[in-house]
Design brief:
By secondary structure, the chain is α/β, with parallel strands linked by helices. The protein contains 27 helices and 10 strands. The longest helix is centred in the middle third of the chain and has 42 residues, at 315-356. The protein is elongated, with a radius of gyration of 36 Å. Bound molecules: adenosine-5'-diphosphate.
Length: 628
């Protein structure tokens, strides 16, 4: 990775930093202003104290006039009180803004918003997922990425004001001459001596951040190993603590695998690459960096004390100069360190922007969908074929089909025959490779996506409920129509259960958020998902294996309620249980991506050698042998 960082031009690094900075600034201008003022006050405050204290000490060590001493004490205390008060006010302003902003949350939200607006094929792509994982990992683990720019901004301003304040307070150190009768000490007045000292101090100041960077580069070289180790560590922690896996782990003693495969020893242990670096290059650089700082401090003490000894200034000024020069050098070193760090961060930001810049290739239409209270929408698949990105085989081949309004349609077929793909195309998660899908005679690509999707309610097999209240889950929003939620619950056959819950519709699901949360079975989850689909009140209801998690009684209950659930909607079912498809007006049989049969249950059963009859007989056989 360090090679890749080095391959980036300075211009590219600056552009990436500018872009990240402008993102934050555009979103939170007031936060930036308050942070700027706070950083300035924070950096300048010690200098104010240093300056007035030095004045006071000089007076104490010199003439010791009472009035002047009192005057200086009052000035020192007033200046300190004023700046402290101002700093506290600005700090509060900044904190209120930064707490409200919650930098970390908005950083993640930017990524989530991107995921939500991205073409679905890109969301599913392993490349996108790997990139996002990498971005999130470096952001969480080492604070690198767009988020870091805000932190660097604060550090940069502090360092800059520290440097400027230090220069302001230490100029006179070099200007004030030692007394002419100070013997050999007068050589400290020689311009060459001052130049040599300044050069030496600059050199030492530059050396420290350079040594720091040597250390950081070592860490970066171990990055891939450490990332793997961290990922493994996260997985290990999750494996033991996640309630969904805990049972399997205990039952099969899966933790044994972990001790065998554990790469943490290799990545973090005493023989790891990072440990070798710590004993070698990185450790030496870090020790040298600390030593250089001490040498620098020693030299400053020596120079300032010698000048004071030579009578250039009073004892009080010694603290001022030592403090000012040390802080000035610290400020300069920090600026240099930040410049290096911004260069390294550019590499991570490049990855983050690569993710944020993934283009939407699917055509984005803008037509609105006509709102019809009679739900009279007609959908047609016209010669639709589809291949998933980067695959050769067609998942759907030349499908032509028209849904009649208010019809109950079943899609059946073996696993991998293309049923879910058909639904994904209908929901425009993908666009057909060939052919077109029409809603009321217009290509669905031409509609605004949100408008188009408002016509559909889908219960996917792997639907997700959230740890919110039952009612909020049904309505999919925080505030909702309670009567409507209740009626949907009733139709889905879940109302009795809701009534028995401690808080009825307000009962929180799962224990993620609260101890009082209620755990529910897979079948109950499925009923809530069905109620949620009904609450949307859309023209099409799509149920992917709607009764897969239900026991035979509950399944029977759902199917007897089917007419109530579907009402005047057009319903599309995907089901493996052919017995449940008998309730449908029309059954479409998929086989290897093609529609091979279409008709009512009775008509299809009669077709000798047909796929449906074959599937039906196979399932009937199971039921017969199960029963016997
Ligand atoms: P069904 O729902 O009938 O079980 P699918 O529509 O899920 O079948 O799958 C149809 C075909 O498309 C299968 O061969 C499957 O492997 C393939 N497929 C499904 N999803 C993807 C995907 N995201 N990427 C590549 N191929 C896929």
């Amino acid at each position: 990775m360090s090679e890749e960082t080095e391959k980036m031009t300075r211009k590219e690094k600056i552009q990436l930093n500018k872009r990240a900075f402008s993102i934050w600034y555009r979103e939170y201008p007031a936060l930036f202003v308050s942070t700027g003022i706070y950083s300035m006050l924070d950096a300048v405050f010690p200098y104010i104290i240093l300056y007035f204290s030095a004045q006071l000490l000089n007076e104490l060590a010199g003439a010791r006039q009472k009035e002047i001493l009192i005057q200086k004490i009052i000035i020192l205390l007033s200046a300190e009180a004023f700046v402290l008060l101002l700093k506290a006010v600005v700090c509060r302003w900044k904190n209120v803004l930064s707490d409200g902003t919650c930098i970390y949350f908005y950083d993640r939200k930017r990524q989530f918003d991107k995921l939500l607006s991205m073409d679905f094929c890109d969301v599913e792509s392993p490349w996108t997922q790997a990139l996002l994982r990498e971005v999130q990992q470096t952001s969480m683990w080492r604070n690198y990425g767009v988020r870091r720019v805000y932190m660097q901004y604060q550090e940069f301003l502090k360092a800059l004001f520290k440097l400027l304040g230090g220069i302001g307070l230490s100029v006179s150190l070099f200007q004030l001459p030692v007394r002419a009768d100070a013997g050999w000490l007068t050589m400290l007045n020689h311009p060459l001596c001052i130049l040599l000292l300044a050069l030496f101090l600059c050199g030492v100041t530059l050396l420290s951040p350079w040594l720091e960077m040597v250390g950081k580069r070592c860490v970066i070289q171990c990055e891939q190993d450490l990332k793997l180790g961290n990922r493994f560590f996260g997985f290990f922690e999750d494996l033991v603590s996640a309630d969904k896996r805990a049972l399997d782990v205990r039952l099969y003693g899966q933790e044994r695998f972990l001790t065998q495969l554990n790469p943490i020893q290799n990545d973090f242990g005493v023989n790891s690459k990072i440990a070798r670096f710590s004993r070698g290059r990185m450790g030496i650089a870090s020790a040298a960096s600390a030593a250089v700082s001490r040498i620098f401090g020693g030299l400053i003490y020596l120079f300032v004390c010698l000048k004071a000894w030579g009578g250039a200034f009073g004892v009080g000024s010694v603290t001022q100069y030592i403090g000012a020069v040390t802080a000035m050098s610290g400020g300069l070193a920090k600026l240099l360190e930040l410049a290096g760090d911004a260069g390294i961060n550019a590499f991570y930001m490049k990855k983050e922007f690569m993710f944020l810049d993934i283009p939407n290739r699917m055509y984005q239409g803008s037509l609105t969908v006509e709102k019809r209270s009679d739900k009279n929408y007609e959908v047609e698949f016209r010669n639709v074929s589809f291949r998933y990105p980067n695959t050769e085989a067609y998942a759907l081949k030349n499908v032509s089909l028209k849904f009649r309004v208010g019809e109950r349609l079943a899609l059946v077929g073996q696993n991998g025959s293309g049923k879910t793909t058909f639904i994904k195309l209908l929901c425009r998660l993908y666009d057909p490779t060939e052919g077109e899908i029409l809603l009321n005679g217009i290509d669905i690509r031409k509609y605004d996506y949100q408008e188009y999707m408002s016509v559909f309610s889908v219960v996917f097999q792997d639907f997700q409920l959230l740890a919110y209240s039952v009612g909020q889950n049904i309505a999919a929003r925080a505030s909702y129509d309670r009567e409507k939620a209740e009626s949907c619950c009733e139709k889905a056959g879940f109302w009795e259960r809701v009534k028995s819950m401690p808080e009825g519709l307000d009962t929180i699901l799962y224990k993620d958020m609260t101890e009082e949360g209620v755990e529910i079975s897979g079948g109950e989850e499925q009923k809530i998902a069905i109620a949620r689909a009904m609450y949307r009140d859309s023209a099409f209801l799509i149920l992917d294996e709607p009764t897969a998690a239900l026991d035979p009684m509950a399944e029977y209950e759902i199917y007897t309620r089917l007419n109530e659930i579907v009402e005047d909607r057009t319903a599309i079912y995907i089901s493996h249980r052919l017995s449940s498809c008998r309730f449908c007006d029309e059954i479409i049989v998929f086989h290897e991506g093609s529609m091979v049969q279409q008709g009512s249950h009775e008509a299809l059963l009669e077709q000798e050698g047909g796929k449906y009859r074959e599937l039906w007989n196979t399932q009937a056989q199971y039921y017969v042998s199960d029963a016997s």
